Each structure stands twice: as C-alpha cells, then as structure tokens.
C-alpha cells in the first residue's frame, strides 16, 4: 500500500468515526452485564444457545434455558442460579420455546432443541411445567429425526400468522434447511411432518423466525444473514439482507433473535462472533442496520431477547447471550437489561405478549 493510499483511507476512517450520518462510534451501545449465570457442567466450549421462557402467571419465575452442547439443557432462574439439568446425554445445540402448543388434551409450553449425541441425533422436545418450573422430555431421546437421521446444527421455531400452525426449522453444517410442521395426534405426543427443504451454499447455524411478518432468517456463518419466507409454500429463494464485512459484521455470523414490538416494530439481532459483538437491524422492511451492542465479550454465540417484563431487574425486557472464552472456569450465560441496551436509542416496547398474537 502506498503512503498516499494509506492516508486517504485513514481520513476516510476518521470521517466515518466522527460522522453522525455514517454512524459508527455513536451507534455502539455498551450496557453492563447485570447477571452472569452459574456455569454449565462441561468444560471448554460447551455453552451455546439460550432461550427465555416467560412464566404465564408470575413473570419473575421465568426461566433461561441454556444448552450445554457436551451435556444437556440447563434451566437457570433470573438470578442466574442453576435450578435443573435435564437430558444430560443428548448434547443439545440450539434451543427455542413454543408457547401454547395445542397438545391433544390441552395447550402446553414446549422447549425444542436439535440434539447431536451419537445415536440420538434429531430434535428433542420438552414440556415446560409452569407449576414447578421443570422440563420433562415428551419422549425419551429425540422426538424425531431430521436430514435422514443425520446431525442437525441450528434450530428455531415458527408460528404462522396465517393459520397459527407451529413449525420447527433445522439446518446443518452443509447449509441445508428442513422445515417441519408440528401437531399432536394423540395425548402427550408431538408429530413432525416435513413440509419444505431448501438451503444455502455453506455452513449455517443461527436462525430465527418472525411470527408476525412471516420471515425466516438464517446465518450462513462466513457469508451473512439470509431472509426467506417462513411459510411452507414460501419457495426456496432467499435475500442476503446483511453481508459479512458490512457494519462490522464479522464471521462467524452466529445466533439470531428478534425483539418483538408492536406491529412490525422491533429488531433482528445477530451475533457477530469475529468482532465479539451484536449487530442490530430493523425487523421491518429491508432490515436496515441500526446499531452495535458491545458487552466487551469475546467469542459471542447464541442469544435471545424478550421485550416483556420478567423480574424487577428486567422489568423492561431481558437480553441473554453466551459469550466469552473462559479459562479455568466453565462457560456461562449473561443477562442484560433491555432498557440499558436501548437507552434513548432503541425502542422499548413491551406491548406484545409472548403468548398469542
Ligand atoms: Ca452456536
Ligand atoms: Ca459457545
Ligand atoms: Ca435460542
Ligand atoms: Ca456455529
């Protein structure tokens, strides 16, 4: 690089940092981490992905479900205390929550996760009992297999605004995606029916679906974030709405989640593992870039956010993530108050229940 070229770049960079139009420095939100959970049981890179489950009657009794990909699912309370470890031999990777699933015999809340243990590869489903805040597998091991009995990687759930049907998306390290419709043919049973298969060119994992706008977002780890229709008849063509290299988005692109406000308001939030931070995009329209959330973590991974109140400390929304290489101690999950992330820059909108429409 010639000196002249270098100084031109430096000037451009300086302009970018100080320009309110270009954004950058002032678009970095740096809230504090309020709670770090107790650690997961296994050492090394074991914690992966969280899901917040909001208690139907007493939001302060809500749970954070975290995966230990070398073990099982760990349920933490809102103080970060481990209160249950379930299915310690399934090796779940990504976890998500379904509210009000029409189980034969009555509506139930479910947790679902892709599992990767030898001989137990598939999707496991747990019933969440609100009375005692405990998870129980609806059937031993994975409830159903995917990709012809091979290993899933990322998973997420979707409830269609068209017909209220429930779906699970799974993807694998080849970038393939399968979508399954869930129903309950008999008491206590969940049946999964493959309704669509599509994919992208390389390894995927993080995904999330928008239950209002009918969109399915998928992280292609070294490429960016794709948006597809979440409907089973939505075809196989996606749009790359965020590219690695833009706005500091740095491979691997990992977990995705949605902050759900009224109508189409809210955000799509992505883990940018290579830069150790999170990228916030508008949920509506063409998913314009909004801001970066920097918690000072290394190696960020799965994340989840709920806009609704939970405990007093998280009365205006809860953001949960896995991140941070740990030496000596095992990994854990971090809780951040959404209003401390948002400040006066992002929307704070708890108008939408996690249950129902
Ligand atoms: Ca991950
Ligand atoms: Ca991890
Ligand atoms: Ca999750
Ligand atoms: Ca990954």
Automatic annotation (TrEMBL):
EC id: 3.1.3.8
Keywords: Hydrolase, Signal
Location of the BPP domain: 21-346
Pfam assignment, any one: Phytase
First and last residue of the signal peptide: 1-25
Keyword Signal: yes
Broadest EC class assigned to this enzyme: hydrolase
InterPro entries: 6-blade_b-propeller_TolB-like, B-propeller_Phytase
GO terms of molecular function: inositol hexakisphosphate 3-phosphatase activity
Protein name per its UniProtKB record: 3-phytase
Organism whose genome encodes this protein: Paludisphaera borealis
């Amino acid at each position: 690089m010639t000196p002249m070229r270098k100084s031109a770049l430096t000037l451009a960079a300086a302009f970018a940092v100080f320009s309110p139009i270009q954004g950058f420095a002032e678009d970095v939100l740096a809230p504090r981490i309020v709670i770090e959970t107790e650690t997961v049981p296994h050492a090394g890179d074991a914690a992966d992905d969280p899901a917040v489950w909001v208690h139907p009657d007493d939001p302060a009794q809500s749970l954070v479900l975290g995966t230990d990909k070398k073990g099982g699912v760990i349920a933490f309370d809102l103080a970060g205390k481990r209160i249950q470890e379930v299915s310690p031999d399934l090796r779940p990777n990504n976890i998500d929550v379904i509210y009000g699933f029409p189980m034969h015999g009555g509506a139930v809340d479910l947790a679902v996760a892709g599992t990767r243990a030898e001989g137990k590869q598939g999707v496991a489903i747990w019933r969440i009992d609100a009375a005692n805040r405990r998870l129980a597998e609806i059937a031993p091991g994975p409830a159903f297999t995917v990709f012809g009995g091979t290993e899933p990687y990322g998973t997420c759930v979707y409830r269609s605004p068209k017909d209220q049907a429930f779906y699970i998306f799974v993807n694998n390290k080849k970038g393939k995606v399968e979508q399954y419709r869930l129903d309950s043919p008999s008491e206590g049973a969940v049946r999964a029916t493959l309704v669509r298969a599509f994919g992208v060119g390389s390894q995927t994992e993080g995904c999330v679906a928008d239950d209002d706008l009918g969109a399915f977002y998928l992280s292609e780890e070294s490429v960016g974030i794709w948006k597809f229709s979440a409907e089973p008849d939505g075809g196989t063509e996606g749009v790359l709405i965020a590219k690695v290299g833009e706005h500091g988005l740095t491979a691997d692109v990992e977990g995705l989640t949605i902050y759900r406000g009224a109508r189409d308001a809210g955000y799509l939030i992505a883990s940018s593992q290579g830069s150790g931070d999170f990228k916030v995009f508008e949920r509506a329209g063409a998913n314009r870039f909004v801001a970066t959330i920097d918690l000072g973590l290394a190696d960020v991974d799965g994340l989840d956010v709920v806009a609704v109140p939970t405990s007093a400390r998280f009365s205006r929304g809860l953001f949960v993530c896995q991140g941070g290489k740990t030496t000596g101690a095992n990994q854990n999950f971090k809780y951040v108050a959404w209003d401390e992330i948002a400040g006066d820059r992002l929307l704070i909108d708890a108008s939408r229940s996690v249950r129902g429409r």
